[in-house]
């Protein structure tokens, strides 16, 4: 699986890269002003300026990758905006920090992992 990550927060970016590479996945960073390679999963920090552009890029890819967003748990409005923009799943920062590998796998392959 190829994971493209749009996150500048070093704590989350490092956790995501570490979890994805440990699971054997290829990882690429995404910056809104750069072209990113095709992905199976795009992980987007919804607290970053320009997250909407990352969603637009992901939605335009063929085949379309799954899109996972994350942000502060108190920002229900942000999660709703992400859903309306086309994000497949959004989780709170704290949830993602608990088990980033599992959250990414669940987002990429919904319904294929056993319940936790």
TrEMBL record:
<dbReference type="GO" id="GO:0003677">
    <property type="term" value="F:DNA binding"/>
</dbReference>
<keyword id="KW-0238">DNA-binding</keyword>
<protein>
    <submittedName>
        <fullName>DNA-binding response regulator</fullName>
    </submittedName>
</protein>
């Amino acid at each position: 699986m190829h994971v493209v990550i749009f996150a500048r927060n070093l704590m989350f970016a490092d956790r995501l890269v570490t979890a994805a590479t440990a699971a054997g996945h290829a990882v690429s960073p995404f910056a809104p002003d750069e072209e990113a390679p095709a992905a199976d999963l795009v992980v987007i920090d919804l607290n970053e300026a320009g997250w909407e552009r990352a969603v637009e890029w992901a939605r335009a890819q063929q085949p379309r990758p799954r899109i996972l967003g994350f942000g502060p748990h108190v920002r229900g409005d942000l999660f709703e905006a992400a859903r309306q923009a086309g994000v497949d799943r959004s989780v709170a920062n704290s949830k993602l920090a608990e088990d980033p590998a599992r959250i990414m796998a669940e987002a990429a392959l919904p319904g294929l992992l056993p319940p936790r």
